[in-house]
Design goal:
By secondary structure, this protein is mostly helical. It has one domain. The chain has nine helices and no strands. The protein is globular and about 50 Å long. The relative contact order is 0.19.
């Protein structure tokens, strides 16, 4: 695990995060998150990507969430209801990896269907690399600065770390369904597959949801950290 953290640059980010005030770390990761979310919309508006590309790029983020959340579960040191986890982190991480991975697989199935309905993939390799790298970087920065650097893992239990990603994933699924109906032009006979509405819906809704859950999680963990420091 330590080798993986070094390869991903998380040790360096943790060192930086430990020196930042909590508000600065929270603000930095929020800005990075917003930028990564809006980058696909910018790519579509500039003709560098299409609607299908965006849906699959956002599906890829679920893969990243699966990966980073598994790391969180494995490295969480908090207790549940004041009682340390007796079975260890590995069984919980294994269950999450299977369960969340199954949902991610289903999400990916529908995302690729939508990509096909919207004309397939139109973005070039450089665009894809940029979008995927931005998504990955936004989660790694938060993982390094907040989880390790700010010490959030000291107060979050493996069970809590496992539950956190699910509300966000549910909203993403609802966004995919909404985008699907927009692509089919339900109630809009003059609509076309080139309409920007599905992308704007997905980007806007997803950004708001991501920022909400991100800030709420940071504040809750910070409150728990303050509680451990009080006599």
């Amino acid at each position: 695990m330590n080798v993986l953290l070094r390869v991903l640059g998380l040790n360096l980010l943790a060192h930086v995060g430990s020196r930042l005030p909590s508000r600065a770390a929270r603000t930095t990761t929020s800005i990075v998150l917003i930028a990564a979310n809006l980058l696909p919309l910018w790519a579509v508006l500039n003709g560098a990507a299409g609607v299908g590309d965006v849906f699959v790029v956002y599906w890829f983020e679920n893969v990243v969430v699966w990966f980073t959340s598994t790391i969180k579960i494995l490295t969480a040191r908090g207790a549940t209801a004041g009682v340390a986890q007796p079975t260890g982190n590995v069984p919980i991480a294994g269950f999450f990896a299977f369960h969340f991975g199954l949902f991610t697989l289903v999400h990916g199935f529908f995302s690729f269907i939508i990509a096909g309905l919207s004309g397939g993939f139109t973005g070039g390799p450089r665009t894809w690399l940029l979008l995927l790298a931005a998504i990955l970087a936004s989660h790694l920065v938060s993982l390094g600065l907040n989880w390790f650097g700010q010490g959030e893992r000291e107060v979050v239990s493996p069970q809590r770390a496992m539950v956190v990603p699910y509300p966000r994933m549910l909203v993403l699924h609802l966004s995919v369904i909404g985008g699907f109906f927009l692509l089919l032009g339900v109630g809009r006979p003059d609509s076309t597959y080139d309409d920007i509405a599905p992308v704007a819906l997905l980007c806007g809704m997803k950004t708001l949801v991501d920022v909400f859950f991100h800030v709420r999680e940071r504040l809750a963990n910070r409150k728990a950290l303050r509680g451990t420091l009080e006599p």
